[in-house]
Amino acid sequence: MTAASQKKALICFIAKLLRDCNHVAVGASSPIPGAAALLAKAVWSSPRHVNILGSTKNNFFTNGSQELFDCAAQGRIDAFFLGGGQIDGAANINLMGRGEYPLNTPRWPGTFGSAYLYFLIPKVILFREEHTRRVLVDKVDFISAPGTSDDNTYRTGGPFGLLTNKAFFKFNKNEKRFSLKSIHSNSSLEDILDNTGFAFDYEKDTPITAAPDPELLTVLDNEVSAKIKDVYPQFAQTIFVN
Predict the structure, then answer these.
(1) Fewer CB atoms < 10 Å away: N or C end of the chain?
(2) How far apart are CA 177 and CA 89, in angstroms?
(3) Domain tally for the chain?
(4) Which residues of the chain have pLDDT under 50?
(5) What is the pLDDT of residue 242?
(6) Range of the domain at 20
(7) What CATH number does residue 90 fall under?
(8) E strand or H helix at 125
């Protein structure tokens, strides 16, 4: 499978996760989640609303991130995506940098509103293409946004799952740990165990991730590609021929 085909497969996989949503918001510099949200809307008309920050045509926010935060607080966003330089087995994410804060080396972009959104949006999908022990660690060096909270903390949002270029994990909020649900065709259980720095639940016969539906790929190539070019032109050039 080529690099472009792998990215298209991730887009199709995420699109299926969004079918039960009404409103999906996507942050800046998130081409794969953004394409997935637009694909789900095009194929199933669900989500009904997609907001991609930075887009001129696929974003009805008029006040940028402030309106995103307002909608999240009002319970009007169903799904969002977060990543991180580090993600651990408790679904904590680190957006600050490696090492002890504030002397992190290197320094990353920063936490911004990740913790706020993590607490409010019910379906937060953690997405990071790179699947290595450098990224998926036993414990993050700095908690930018916690995956779980104690019972006395009001929290309507949290992690739904973790998707990488090797596998998909579902997060068990009661056990506060990930469970391996499917392995992509380019990987194996041994590969996942070797390259994941945190402990997780799994079955020896964990299924292989299903190949993308031809219908989804057709809509992605023929319809969604033009919308993606408007937001992420360089990304579109890497996965679409025309």
Answers:
(1) C
(2) 6
(3) 1
(4) none
(5) 58
(6) 3-239
(7) 3.40.1080.10
(8) strand 123-127
Per-residue model confidence (pLDDT) at position 225: 94
The Cα–Cα gap between 196 and 87 comes to: 10
DSSP structure class, residue 221: I
Within 8 A by CB and 6+ apart from 45, the residues are none
Please give the single-letter amino acid code of residue 26.
V
Of 136, 27, 129, 59, the residue nearest 90 (C-alpha): 136
**CB of 157 within 8 A of CB of 121?**
yes
Query: Which amino acid would we find at residue 111?
Result: T
Residue pointed to by tokens 């001129």? 56
pLDDT in tens, 120-137: 999 999 999 999 999 999
CB 51, CB 61: distance < 8 Å? yes
Half-sphere exposure of 199 (CA within 13 A, CB side): 2
Nearest Cα to Cα of residue 40 among 64, 17, 58: 17
Name every residue whose Cβ is closer than 8 Å to that of residue 201 and which is 6 or more positions away in sequence.
Answer: 172, 175, 177, 178, 179, 180
DSSP-based helix, strand, coil % in the chain, nearest 5: 30, 20, 50
